Amino acid sequence: MLSIVVPTLNEEKHLPWLLASIKKQEMNDYEIIVSDAGSKDSTLDIAKKYGCRIVKGGLPPKGKNRGAEAARGELILFVDADVVLNKDSLAKFLKEFKIKNLDAAGFLLNSQGRFYGLSYGLLYNLPCLLTEKFLPQAMSVIMVKRSVHQKIKGFDEKVRLGEDVDYVRRAAKVSRFGVLKSGKVFVSPRRFQRDGWLKTWFKYFLYQIHMLFLGPVRSDIFRYRLNRYKK
Question: Across residues 56-68, what is the average pLDDT?
Fold first, then answer.
């Protein structure tokens, strides 16, 4: 079984698109766990409508860990609420994951509109592929064996920004990591629409420098706020 863990906070706008895209996949051996941080909108009603299991979450690292604790599958897919899966892509990803004998994996991303798609292609996908073997990257979507998640003791709940990158780099030290190339995952451009693409990517660049020389970001230096990109 595949356990799909979705951390949420007031995601009534995006969550239906993600859940609908999961339901359209040509596979049914999965469960969806919504790890909610206290939504005040209709997020939980939407989750119940789609038959999701609901657990209490928190900031992204905590929410993902609580979801993983409730997972019954041997394979976990952590996915942000503003993601959409292309039709039949999940089966292709699972097949590639198995063929490559991976234990943890990142994904190539795409976004709405040619500009944002190109931005992800040049500033995220290309670096991911170039540094796959020695400096793993991940954003928005991660697939991992539950045994590996437990071995590295899950996400570091003290990390304030970039918990996905910290997670896969720790996973890569004890298991086989790779980037799945059989398709791309759609991610909402809301991060760029709110702060601007240049400012957003520059922040991620500074974050990468911080990771390389100072380690994971456990302070509030980047002033991350949960759900700031909900619009």
Answer: 97
CA distances from 55 to 51, 52, 209, 218, 230 (A): 13, 10, 34, 25, 20
Q: Which of 193, 192, 4 is nearest to 80 (CA)?
A: 4
Say what percent of the chain tops pLDDT 70: 95
Q: Going by DSSP bridges, is the β-strand pair 177-187/83-84 parallel, antiparallel, or unpaired? A: antiparallel
Specify the CATH superfamily of domain 2-213.
Spore Coat Polysaccharide Biosynthesis Protein SpsA; Chain A (3.90.550.10)
23: number of Cβ within 10 Å: 11
Q: Are 136 and 165 in contact (CB under 8 A)?
A: yes
* 231 contacts: CB under 8 Å, gap ≥ 6: 13, 190, 194
- Helix (H/G/I), strand (E/B), else coil: 69: helix
Average pLDDT over residues 164-176: 98
